[in-house]
Amino acid sequence: MGVFAFCQSFMYTVFPPEFRSALLKIFNRIFNCCSSYCYFDITEIDGVNTNELYNAVQLYLSSSASITGSRLSLTRALNSSAITFGLSNNDRLVDNFKGVDVVWEHVVMQRQSQSFSWRPMPEEKRGFVLKIKKNDKSLILNLYLDFIMERATDISEVLIKNRRDRQKAISELLDTLKRRAEKRSSRNGVSIEKDSMEVEDEEQEKRALESPEEECGLEEGCEKEEKKTETKGTVAPFPPALPLTSSDGLEIV
């Protein structure tokens, strides 16, 4: 370990940066020629635009990561009950397509600070690295990536449908609750009116039951007053006149 550190410090001290970069390029070419694998980088942002292939790979791996992944990142969107699975930072996942094993690696690096940009970039640089064998290159590039795009489209349609169904269910639930509240308020108003009318009827019945004598007394008084008025309005007849007689006992006509 100490020898490796000494050699590294010696190279940084003796060789200039241009020479070191040239050596690294040569070493990478030798390694790529001797290696039986090839690598493909799929970055999140392509220049200034979002890479659709990155989003498709992310959706596709989220469906298989919950089954084959050993270390996953769990996310849950706002106002959503679904939990999304994904690869953790700098973690790998092995997928199989038509008997061919492929390796996906989620690479996350810190982005260099920008002096000025009209479109602010995220602080982290994210991307997927696809590792496949060189013999399987034609199969993977022609069929596997198309399969990923189709599968991601299906998953996104299902998510959109579930979201619409959820919003539809929420709107239907709100309408149902609103109708129930309106029915309840109308029922309360009718019951109040019925109660007030019943109270008035009960009061009238009580009054009629409690004062029958008063009503009868009023009727008798009215009859007496009517009789008085009748007696006052009529003249009493004179008594019959007695016959006049003389001293001799004869009746004078």
UniProtKB/TrEMBL annotation:
Residues 211-223 have a biased composition (Acidic residues). Keywords: Hydrolase. InterPro entries: AAA_N_dom (IPR025753), Mitochondrial_chaperone_BCS1 (IPR050747). One of its GO terms (molecular function) is hydrolase activity. Residues 244-253 have a biased composition (Polar residues). Residues 184-253 are annotated as: Disordered. It holds the Pfam family AAA_assoc. Residues 15-107 form the AAA-type ATPase N-terminal domain. This is AAA-type ATPase, N-terminal domain.
